[in-house]
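Can't paste images in this forum, so I'm doing it all in text. The chain is below; anyone willing to post the predicted structure tokens underneath?
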Amino acid sequence: MAIVFSLLTKMIPLYLTIALGWIAGRFLQVNGRHIASLMLYIITPSVIFSGVMSAPLSTTVLLIPVFVWCICLVLGLGFLTIGKRVLGDARANILAMTVSTGNTGYFGIPVALILFGQKALGIYVVCMLGTTLYENSMGFYIAARGRYSVRECVLRVLKLPSLYAFLIGAGLNLSGIRIPDIFVPMFDNLRGAYSIFGMMIIGMGISTFRGLAGDWRFTGLSFVGKFLAWPLMVLLLWWIDGLGPHWYDLQVYRSLFLVSIVPVAANTVVIATLLETHPEQAAGTTLLSTIVALLYIPVMVALVLG
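Text version of the structure:
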């Protein structure tokens, strides 16, 4: 019960930040598209770079993001197929993004600190990088295919700096190079901006939205994928690993489970805004999933990790 109460308390600032974003979009006419570009091309790559640089890397640990990336891909392609049959338009491509990724950063990291503590946070960050890399590679490609040609999508993915930030950070980390102390405060501030802007852009996205859920079929499929399919897949892999392979230890699977139960990623709204592909629908679904997560995460943590 203490964990549930602590998590609920920690989530309150997230909802207040969303409300501030709504005020900025509704009354100050702040352009969410400009902030989305700032997030995608500057702030997110900076957070990835600093996270990789500070994580305890090894060859085995570096395979965890690849493992997570593959889970994201399976879910993304699966719900893209379902979405095309049920929705029949570009919303299917955004659906694939809402299901396959999650708000693992500015929502998941505070929860991970409560559950695992500072010492074990590095493993969670490495797991989180798998979803972030997927967002900035195949996730972006699938989302963009609802609007652009294959060639245009590939070119747009190649222009995303997050993948390069991960590779450079991993190379420097494995070489024993660390971020100089003089730059540490700057990266700390960028992580703060990542959290604030990421949640505010949800509020900006819904500021012009009429009807919170929009198309209930989109929202319903998003919830089935995000809150049911994702955790079930992780629990299945956890169970299979416990029967014999023993790929990873308990802490890795605890971190993976937390990755699987966070709400829809705010970056879904960022990408939908940049691609001009149903951003209001993405924002409404993201906000609803964040509200549901207020109770869903504490309950799931108590049932599985408690």
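The chain has one domain: 2-305. Residues 108-144 form the longest helix (37 residues).
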